[in-house]
Q: What sequence folds into this?
């Protein structure tokens, strides 16, 4: 990375990753963003998933579409094209987590299905892993925290996210089926560290959908086995606590566009505070020296 790019990387940039879908990456991204907002941080969410779940849930005004329901509004796809149609700053939009007298608003780089086509276009490009990092440098000085919601794959979009990031948070369930492919994401992270982003560091592994207080002995043993597998695969990454429990309201809050801290259900305020704990873990992480 050149010196001018290094100086512009003011925000802490975190990639939320796992090659498996359904483990809670997008939900975690949304709740971390809200928790960071409530701490007074300026937050940008980058939706790097062509499915656009974070975009659909959090964008303040729905994406513009034509009569065939194709997205015509500028998105991250336009920024990552080999010949970009827009700058990163031009595609940023507000989220439902609007600014108040107390907090700054959370911004969003939206995504759409066209991003999957752009991913294919990146493959033959020179320095293809560096494209998102270079584009994010345009706005990194505007934020304290940038959260990148990675797709459930290990393709160019995830590699770009890991290359752009200062830290990676792996999201996983404590289930054997969820940890089956966890070695693959670890190898991808090591590949990125070895080739293009040697300063990439772990925040840790965040356990989502934890079966809290289960009385089923078999389930408890499976949870312990899964945690042991995660610890084995990520010896350099702490398993973050507190775990995020399996509660319908956690995902439902994102789908309904309600900040978790405003959900009037027993125990949910504690969980909202737990996300705040994880935000502080991110913000307290020592920063490595950036290399040229």
A:
């Amino acid at each position: 990375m050149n010196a001018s790019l290094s100086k512009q990387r003011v925000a802490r940039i975190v990639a939320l990753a796992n090659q498996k879908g359904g483990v809670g990456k997008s939900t975690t991204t949304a709740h971390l963003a809200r928790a960071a907002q409530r701490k007074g941080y300026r937050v940008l969410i980058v939706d790097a998933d062509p499915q656009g779940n974070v975009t659909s849930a959090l964008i303040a005004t729905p994406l513009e579409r034509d009569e065939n329901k194709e997205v015509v509004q500028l998105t991250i796809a336009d920024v990552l094209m080999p010949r970009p149609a827009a700058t990163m700053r031009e595609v940023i939009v507000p989220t439902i987590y609007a600014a108040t007298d107390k907090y700054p608003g959370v911004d969003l780089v939206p995504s759409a299905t066209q991003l999957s086509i752009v991913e294919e276009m990146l493959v033959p490009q020179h320095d293809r892993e560096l494209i998102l990092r270079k584009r994010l440098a345009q706005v990194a000085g505007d934020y304290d925290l940038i959260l990148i919601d990675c797709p459930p794959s290990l393709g160019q979009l995830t590699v770009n996210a890991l290359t752009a990031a200062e830290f990676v948070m792996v999201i996983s369930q404590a289930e054997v089926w969820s940890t089956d492919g966890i070695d693959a994401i670890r190898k991808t992270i090591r590949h990125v560290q070895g080739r293009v982003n040697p300063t990439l560091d772990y925040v840790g592994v965040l356990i989502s959908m934890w079966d809290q207080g289960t009385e089923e002995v078999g389930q408890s043993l499976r949870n312990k086995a899964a945690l042991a597998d995660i610890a084995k695969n990520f010896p350099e990454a702490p398993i973050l606590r507190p775990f995020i429990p399996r509660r319908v309201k956690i995902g439902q809050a994102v789908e309904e566009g309600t900040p978790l801290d405003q959900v009037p259900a027993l125990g949910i305020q504690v969980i909202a505070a737990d996300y705040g704990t994880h935000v502080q873990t991110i913000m307290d992480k020592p920063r490595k020296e950036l290399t040229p």
